[in-house]
Amino acid sequence: MQVLTFAFQESTFALPIEGVAEVIRTPSLTLLPGAPPGLAGLINLRGRMIPVVDPRFYLGHDASRPLRHVIVVMGEGELMGLGVEEVEGIVETPVPKGVPDIVEGRLSPLIYGYFQWGGKFVFTWHAYGPFLLWDFMDSSGEMLS
C-alpha cells in the first residue's frame, strides 16, 4: 500500500495515496469572516474554490507554525484541502496495523491504523479523513459527537 506521509510538530501521519489528488505549496488563503476556527481558508485551484482545513486545531496541536503545503484530497467528486506543515514523501507500507490504544478522542474517527517508519509511529488516516474533520465541526468550532 502506498501512503503520503505528512507531519505536524512531532507527529507523523499518512493518507492513502489513492485519495490524494495533488500536493501544492500553500498559496494565499482567502479567510472567511465567521468561519469555524478549523477552516484555514479557501484556495483558488485552477478556478475552483476549495476549502482548506487546519487539522492542528482539531487535534489540539500548536498552530503557530505556517502551513507550508496543502494536500488536495478527492472524495466522491469533491475536493478538500488539508493544510500541513511538512510533506515527507510517499512510502510503501504493508496494510497498517489496527488502531493503537493511545489513539482516542478527536483523533480516533480519523485513524484506521499505524505503521513504523524511520523509527517513529505513523498514524494512517482514512482516505476520507479530511472530510471527517469538516463534518465533525459545528460553526462554533466545537467537535460534534
From TrEMBL:
Biological process according to GO: chemotaxis; signal transduction
GO cellular component terms given for this protein: cytosol
InterPro entries assigned: CheW, CheW-like_dom_sf, CheW-lke_dom
Segments forming domain CheW-like: 1-136
Official protein name in the record: CheW-like domain-containing protein
Source organism of this protein record: Sulfobacillus benefaciens
